[in-house]
Write the structure tokens for this entry.
Amino acid sequence: MTSGNNSLPVEVQKLIIAFSTLPGIGPKTAQRLSYFVLSQNKEETLKLSEALIEVKENLSFCKTCCFITSDKNSESCSYCYEKDSAQICVVENVIDAITIEMSGIHKGSFHVLHGAISPINGIGPEKLKIEELMKRLNRGETEEIILATNPTLEGEATGMYLNKIISENYNNIKLTKLARGLASGTDLEYSDFNTLSNAFQNRTSIDEIN
Amino acid sequence: MPFKTEHLLMKSTNNHIKGIITRCTNYKEADRIFTLISDNGIMKFIARGAKKPSSRLSGHIEPLNYVTLYYRPSKSLNSVSQVESINSFLEIKKEYNLILKAQYMMELSESLSSENEDNSYILSLLISTLSNIHNSKIPDLDILIFEFELLKYQGFGIRLFDCTNCNKKLERSDHYFSSKVGGFYCEDCFESEEIHHESIKVTIEQQLLLRTISRKKYKDLINLNLVEKEINNCRKLIQKSVQDIIGVQLKTVKFSDL
């Protein structure tokens, strides 16, 4: 933070520091947001602060699927009861689960890992919600795990780690992962080697598509 | 590859650079900021729109990709206009343990590289190690050679043949290694100096392994019958030296089976 901020009122300084903690917000953007809040009318600002408080007070993460829940005290959320736990789709973040859910493709339940293994950023398997997933698998209700981690280096590493520990401990559970390959609307000319390699490996018979 | 379009692109864009992407961070809606180990040292770039599925940059902007970048220089972050993958190290990306080891090597290279300085040796060393590691019988040997060469190049090479205190030639026996001085103490100096607490006892076998690495070429080393346990012990010594040189422990160390 610049030294010029010291001359500002303490309240504004506190607001700038608070905004700076958000992902993707640097000191300059934090300042801009703070001045915007100052210029906003009181009702709008109160709405924002109320929304922030409500999110923290009313919502938390489910102890079973690690998705957002309003049932703070119960072991499993309503979503866990509604969905078929025979098929669990493992995703990195809540937003990934929401995207898949909105598409309506997946009818089973989700498990949110809250990140991906990234040693270079100091994130190992112990920092993810893998233990919670193992507890779910111990119940013996699961038939299939769909690994829907991102097709990035970290996502693939997470998928490989999960594949290793699940296949070692649970022989009866079918492990699948989302297909890798060319995305719709892309040009083959600009595809990278990894995508092309995956697209060739996962090629399907035209009869199967039709 | 039989067809190369690189020369055509070079004509149209003046600023281009080759390097390995070490880490990526998502930024704003669809941008990615990433770090590159290049011939010119560590460089940071922004790839606008790289998170969009239709982006022509998306698949190329990934850690552990050796790429040619075409960019517009800027005061803050250079903006990428085009990328071509040279090597994606697909064999490494298929194995969890190799990914962890590769990330360790990238972090180590990053920590010993600077900005705007000739870095071609470190880059070529990293590329050759990454290219060989998936075929190696003992990947840790490749990493040990990489670590050893990297430290030597940066002026932190380990003194293997004489005492770091009195310069006397070391006898053929176990000696004590100090990462702070980057070498061994002879028995006389070890007795007299107050260095006991910071030194590690190194067996003659481990010393011989390090000496062999310092003398032989890679193609000769990989054909030798070396003991994996000794290799791991030597890597621990080098790790200790790295930690003393850069002042912090690398984040990837605990994940790379040390």
User: Anything to note?
Assistant: The beta strands of chain A are 60-61, 68-69, 84-91, 108-112, 144-147, 174-177.
